[in-house]
Specification:
The protein is rod-shaped and about 185 Å long. The longest helix is centred in the middle third of the chain and has 133 residues. The protein starts with a helix and ends with a helix. With 135 residues, it is an all-alpha fold.
Length: 135
């Protein structure tokens, strides 16, 4: 009888083990499915990371290009500002020279006007004297 109890226990234990193994097999299948899903997700993430890396590289190149352009513009502007100030100063000097010349011309015109008026007065007096003498 002892032998039969042992055999029954063995059979019962074996059945339990088989049942648990089947449950573990199901669990393993689920785990494998989840791993496959995660693998797909990881592949998608890697793809997106690669795309972002490309975008970042393009942005870095654009930034470098913009920096070069800014340097060129800055250099051009920096070099032209002193020239503009020099041109402005020369223009200012020329304008002052012209104003001085205009003032001198105005003075000469005024002087000539006075002289002409005086000469006309003298001429008028001389004509009057001549007409009195001739009469």
């Amino acid at each position: 009888m002892d032998n039969q109890i042992t055999k029954e226990m063995y059979t019962k234990d074996m059945l339990e083990i088989k049942t648990k193994l089947k449950e573990h097999d199901k669990d393993i299948k689920e785990i494998k499915e989840k791993l496959e899903e995660h693998s797909k997700d990881i592949k998608e993430i890697k793809k997106k990371l690669e795309e972002h890396d490309k975008d970042i590289k393009e942005l870095k190149e654009m930034i470098k290009s913009l920096q070069r352009t800014m340097l060129i513009i800055e250099d051009a502007v920096t070099n032209k500002i002193p020239a503009l100030f020099d041109g402005y100063a020369m223009h200012q000097e020329k304008q002052e020279e012209l104003e001085n010349k205009v003032e001198k011309i105005e003075e000469k015109v005024e002087t000539h006007s006075i002289r002409i008026t005086a000469l006309e007065a003298i001429s008028s007096n001389n004509k009057n004297r001549l007409s009195k003498i001739s009469s």
